[in-house]
Amino acid sequence: MEHEINLRIILVNPPTGVDFAVQKGRGRIYEPMQKQRSAGKDLMFVFTVNVKGERKSAVPQFSGPVVQGPPTDRFLYIDIGTLAGQDDSCWSRRMKIPLRGITWDMIDWLMSNPKSVLEASVPGTGKDGSPACATVKSFDGWKLARARNG
User: Are the C-beta atoms of 125 and 15 separated by less than 8 Å?
Assistant: First the structure.
């Protein structure tokens, strides 16, 4: 059975003046979704992904236009600078946010609490002050949270 679940990514303290967007599509055929320019505050991206599989299998199977990677190691991309459509940016990067750690118990909870989301807070700025990129390693994983209004 396939379900649609809500995800929210909080990009914490990204550098000012840089565009960020969720990547929809793969390879050279993609489009930046929900493009936002950082103004010194956290950025929030909310979207859905599909999940299927049997509870007997240890890992849910994610799919949809924003889901990337092989079936055993799915992830999301946040495009940065020119990859997010900011033509005048000196940055051309992607941030890879793993979907691992999302469990069937979390998905069951979401199904029974439709005003909820799975949320991941990830650092928006690297140690050198530039936009964080590559695979996100320093985040606490996915957590159950309430949907926010507006």
Answer: yes
